[in-house]
Prior knowledge:
This protein is an all-alpha fold and 166 residues long. It has one domain: Orthogonal Bundle (N-utilizing Substance Protein B Homolog, Chain A). Helix content is 65%, strand content 0%. The chain contains 8 helices and no strands. Helix 1 (24-42) packs parallel to helix 3 (64-76), helix 5 (98-113) packs antiparallel against helix 6 (119-133) and helix 5 runs parallel beside helix 7 (138-153). The termini are far apart. Belongs to the NusB family. One of its GO terms (molecular function) is RNA binding. Residues 26-150 form the NusB/RsmB/TIM44 domain. This is Transcription antitermination protein NusB.
Amino acid sequence: MSTDASTPKPAAAPAPRAAKPKSARRRAREIALQGLYQWLVSGEEAGVIEAHMREQDGFDKCDKPHFDSLLHGCILEAADLDAVLSKHVDRKTSELSPIEHGVLMIGAYELKHCMDVPYKVAINEAVELAKSFGGTDGHKYVNGVLDRAAVDLRPAEVQSMRNKAR
């Protein structure tokens, strides 16, 4: 069978996009979430969990100070963070899946303490964690809860952004 020069050739499939490398902060959040999960499930001491997390693949590429802040801050302030979250969740925080609970704690902690992280970025990063590690629609729940919590934790920033959007 001969092919005619005028016969169209099938289009080549587009090359897959190269995955964007994860930022050091994103890695810190992921590893901190793994540590919080371990803490929520086992109740182990923060120091034991931290040592275990530092042995994980990719730890050398994470923002270590941010990891320390998130892991230890969330554990030390768990009751305060749960109090903030309890105003916006539909059940007790202890009844949330450990992944959703940990993601919400990280998001609330960043909203409360990491003023260098814009509130929309803190929420988006938590949503991305929920997409990567949580249940099918858990990211929607995380987004809604943290969006409402941001009004409590960063009222001026939220209002400023809403005014700009008008």
